[in-house]
Prior knowledge:
- The complex is a heterodimer of chains A (482) and B (460).
- Chain A contains ten helices and 23 strands.
- Chain A has 482 residues and is an alpha+beta fold.
- Chain B has a six-stranded antiparallel beta sheet with strand order 3-2-1-4-5-6. In chain B, strands 10-9-8-13-19-18 form a six-stranded mixed beta sheet, covered by helices on one side.
- In chain B, a hairpin with a 4-residue loop joins strand 5 (181-198) and strand 6 (203-212).
Amino acid sequence: MVQEVARPESFFFDRFGVTPRALEAVLGSALERKADYADLYFEYRTAETLGIEDSLVSRAARHTDCGVGVRVCAEERTGYAHSDEITVERMRLAVRTARAIADGTGRAPVPVKLGQSVRGHDLYNVSETLGAVGPEERARLLAEVDRAARQFDPRVKNVIATLSGEQRVVMVVTSDGRIAADIRPLWRLSVSVVAQDAHGRQVGTSGTGGRVDYSFFGENERWREHALLAARQAVIGLEADEAPAGEMVVVLGPGWPGIILHEAVGHGLEGDFNRKGVSAFAGRLGQRVASAACTVVDDGTLAGRRGSLNVDDEGTPTGRTVLIDRGILSGYLQDRLNARLMKMAPTGNGRRESYCYPPMPRMTNTFLLPGEFTPEEIIRSVAKGVYAVSFSGGQVDITSGKFVFSASEAYLIENGSVTRPIKGATLIGSGPEVLTRVAMVGNDLALDPGIGTCGKEGQWVPVGVGLPTVRVDGITVGGTRT
Amino acid sequence: MAEREPETGPGRAQAPDEGFAQWLLAQAARCGADGAEVLALSGESIEAGVRLGEVETLRSARQRRVGLRVFVGKSSATLSTSEFDRNALEQFAAQAVALARLSAADCYAGLPARADHSQVDADLGLCDREHGVPDIERALAIAHQVERAGRAEDARICNSEGAGFEASRYELLFANSQGFSGRYTATTYGVSAALIAGDADAMQRGYWYAAARRLDELEPEAVGRTAARRAVRRLGARRVKTTQAAVVFEAETAATLMRSLAAAASGPALYRESSFLLGALGKTIAAPKLTIIDDGALKGRLGSRPFDGDGLAPKRKYLVRDGVLESYLLDTYAARRLGLRSTGNATRAVGEAPSAGPSNLCLQPGTVTLEQMISAVRRGLLVTELMGSGVNLATGDYSRGAAGIWIENGELAYPVHEITIAGNLSRMLRDVEAVGSELAWRSNVAAAPMLIAEMTIAGE
C-alpha cells in the first residue's frame, strides 16, 4: 500500500491516532528529571527494490519500517529509547528509559507547548509516491540497462543492476515546541558489470540517483550513461597494468573523487569529535589547513541531491557551511547537542539512520569550489603521475588524521598526457596536510552521480561529494610496482 | 490471530510464535503462493556508553520484524515489515504474491528439498539465560569498568572517545511451507573502548572490543587495557620509504584475510563469476600450512545456529585443508546454480533472500609464537591496523591503508603509519610462511598471526 501523503505532520496524527496534546504530555514527562531537552522522532519508511541478473528480472523486494525514537538530553548525556509500535503507551515506556540518564527525581512534568511547524526548504518533490511507477516500468528500464552494457563490448559477461526507491515520512517534535516534518524520496540505480577475457575477469561499477522522481533516470538516457560507465570500467580493468607504489603527483578527476574531502577533512570537522578534542582538527579554527586555492563547503540545500534534506533529523533546516575558506579552517558541522555544548549555532547537520538511533553531526553534500584551470591545463602540467577518476570508498582515523580512499579507475600520466590504465589502488594521506598540497584547482566542479553512503558509529546515511579536477602534489599511491 | 495485537502492558514486545508463522504461510498460500518462508526476529537490547568517567549515552530498544519470501512457480519476491496488525499482514501477503508474479522465472529458485531440513535440536549454547539483557545500572557499571581499566593502564592516555557495553537478546523464528519450522533464542554481549594517547607531537587512537554469547566470557578490564596499549604503542609513528618486505598480520588483521578468502569462496561471488577462486575447488590455493575450518555447530560461538538461512543443518567442513580449497560456502540457490550441494552456509537477514557466507571460521593454529615469528623477520612490517576496502575479490588484487610497527633484524623497531600494503590475495595465500600458535576468537572468526613472505609497502 502506498501512502498518499499530503502533509507529513497529519500523516502520523491520522495513521497512528496520536494527538499534539498527547505528545506534549510525553515530552513534558521526559523532562521530569533534570533534563535540558527532549525530542520525539517518528518515521514511516517504505522501500522497493528490483534487480536484473543474467538478463532475468529478479530480487523483487519491498520493506516497511516504522517506529518512534525518544531522546532525552541532559548536559553531555543522551538517553535514547525506541519502539516499532507508534502508540502513546510505548512512548511513555520509552521515556522512562531515556530519561534515566538525567539526574534527580521528583520534579513535576514540565509544561511543553507545541507551536508552529518549522518551515523547511523545498528541495524535492514530496508528492510523487513510490507506487507512481509500476514494477513493469522498472523491469523495462533494468532490461535496457542490461542490453546497453552487453552491447558495449563482447567481453561483457554479466550485468547485475539494481533499482531501489524509498519514501520516508519523518516528523520531529521537540520539547522547545517545534514540529518539523518531511517526506523524503530517494532513488538509486546501481550497475555492476563483469567482463572477462582469456587472461582474467574484472568488475566495473557505476550508478546514479538522488532525491528525485523516477523520471530522473530517463532524462538524457541517464541510465545508459551509467550502464556504459560500468561496462567501460570493467573492460578497461582487463587491460590495466600494475599500479605504482609510493608518494607521487595525483590528479583527481571531477565528481566522485570528492570523497577525498569527505575523508580528509569532512569527518574531522564534525562537531562531536571536536568538542571531545579527539579530532586532528580540534582547536584549529582560524588556522591554515589547505592551500589558498581550496574552499570547501557542506551544503544540504541543493535541489534533488542525495545528501540534501529540507530539514535535518532534529528539525533544523539544512544550510550551507563553509568548512575551509581559501585554505583557512572556518567551521564545524553541528547538531543541536554539540552546538549547545560548544556554544555555536546548529548547522542543520544533525542526522540519523532511522528512528532506532539518536542523531549525530553528519555531512550532507561536501565539495570543493571551482578554480581557474581547465582540466587539460592540469593534466598537461604533470610530467609523471596518476590520474584517478573513480573511487569505491574510503575511511579515516580522525585522531591521527590519516585517511584512505580507494581508486577503482585510474591511469598513468606521462609527460602531460593520460596514457595506460592502471589497476585500482588505495591512496593514503594525512587530512590536515593533504589539502595544503593542492597546487591547481579546475573550473569543472561536478558532484558525484548520487549513490554515496556514509557510515559512522554503525549508522549509515546517504551523502554527496563533489570536486573539480585538482592536482595534489604528493599523496601515497598503494600500488604494487616499486 | 487476535492475540497478534500489540500488548499494552510494560512487558516485552510479544514474540511471534509458530502459530503466527503458520498463519502467515497460509495467507501466502491463499493469495496464490506455491511456496513460502517466514522469518521473524524479535528482541530487546541495551547499549551504555561512558566517557571520561561520566555517563554519555544510554540506548534501549525493543523490536519485532517479519520477513516473507514467496514463490509463484519459479518466480519469487521478498518482503519485510514491522507492522504486525492483522489487516496490514493480510495485505502484506497479497503484495508479496503480486510482486513475485512480476519477477522472471529463475530455474534455480525454490525451497530446499524436505529431506535436507535441519534436524538439529541440540542446545548450541547461544543464549545466556542467567544474564539476559542486564539493567541500566549493570550496563553502565561494565562500561565504566572498561574505561577505568584503560585510563589507568598508562599515563600517556590523555583523552577518551568512550567505552561501551551492549547486550541483546533475540528470538528467531523460521518456517517454510514444506514443513520446516525452527526457532531459537540467542544473546550477544559486547564491550569496546576507544582511548586516545598523546604526546607533544600528536594523538593516536587505540580501539579494542570483545563480543561473546555469554556475559561472563567478556573481560571488560582486559579490553580497556588492550585499547590503551594499542593507542600508546602508536605514539611517535613515522612513515617508511616505499619498499618490498615481509608482512606479519596480527591475529586481528589476519582475520580480515580469512574473511576475504571466505567471501571469495561464497556462493554469490562464484555464480556471479566475480571471484578469484572460481574453478579452484580441489586445487592448491594457499601454502600447505594453511588450514581453515567453517563450522556452524560450535557450541556458544557467535556464528553458530541450529539451522541456516534455508533451514538446513550447519555442517563442519574444511574450507582450506593443507592449502587445498576443499569446499565452497554455499546456500541452496548457489549450490543449484553451481551444480553442487548446499554446505549449510545460507546467511539471511529479515526481508532478504538467502545469501551465503561463513558461519564460524577457524584457523588451525601453527607452532610459532608471534614473538618467534617477528624474530624470524629481518626487515618487515607488523600490521596492527588496516583501513579502507581495497580488496578486489574478482581478481584478488589487494591494496589497503595500514599502520603498525616496523621490524628490523627480528625486533620491533618503531611504529609506522600513513602507508599502504599491496599484493594479490592468491599470491599472498601461497606466500604464507608461518601461522602463529596463539588462536584468538574474535567475533565469528578464530584467527592467529600470519607471516607473508613479501608485499609492497608504499610510503614516502
